[in-house]
Design brief:
This protein is of the alpha/beta class and 341 residues long. It contains eleven helices and 16 strands. A hairpin with a 5-residue loop joins β14 and β15. α9 runs parallel beside α11. The protein starts with 7 loop residues before the first strand and ends with a strand.
Amino acid sequence: MKAFEPQLVYIEPGALEYPLGRELKEKFEKKGVEIRETTSHNQVRNIPGKNELQQYRNAKSTLVIGVRKTLKFDTSKPSAEYALPLATGCMGHCHYCYLQTTLGNKPYIRTYVNLEEIFDAADQYIKEREPDITRFEAACTSDVVGIDHLTHSLKKTIEHIGQTDLGRLRFVTKYHHVGHLLDAKHNGNTRFRFSVNSDHVIKQFESGTSSFLERIEAAGKVAKADYPLGFIVAPLILHENWKGGYYELFERLEAILPLYAKKDLTFELIQHRFTKTAKNIIQKRYPKSKLEMNEEERKYKWGRYGRGKYVYKDEQAGDLKETIQSYIDKFFPEAKMEYFT
């Protein structure tokens, strides 16, 4: 698939005080993209569209260039101590995505240009945790690889963390546009992860993303560039013949990945879950989606802050975990399964 190009750009006035803000404005002017001004990246209005669904789809091709003012990082991810906010939003149309609810009525894509301030805050977190390693997740609220061919923010972040002794960077992507990242001076401090799934899930629920083969070919290039490599298999969905579908996934992954890509591999497994709010939004935005969201067939799992999600029942979840673990053991016996949730 082609790399993302915005159809409409909004710029916060404050973004032009930073080199990257000015650079992006000039870049899109040369490309003839319509540029509008907005008072804040949190207050973008007048996205074109005759109805809410059209506005949502147009928002997915809108890029907002802004300044990240809140530099208090946090993450609920089991794989990192802190989020590192380079971007918010995604151009993909994955039906199940949790950003459907966390971004609510702001599905447009935001990129933040005050990189030095973000790096300074990250350095402070690293210093506070010395002598422990501090891990940052750069994909909590976006698929930053999907826009980095335009901004190079991720590349600069990889090189910044690469200069630290105790900082580590992680992110995950469904996009294969990684060419500009291959020569980044990462010094082994960045784990480059790809989100993969069964062929059924990718075709049914992940429109607007790179194909399975594109992702795996990119993973091979990333491994050749000596990045530590990982895969997130998510969301694990109990579709028809799911065991065969996921077996095929690992079989193809093992066959396509070169030998050097199989060292120091990590896997993260996340079962499909949803909230009532997410279900309502998904059904509105993707009315023809075949995503299964039947509360009666699920278990309600309480989370933090008194909110919960519908996950698979214990027996189904156990079968999922045991099955996928057996595939990892068979095809990637030296890999580490970091968690199942």
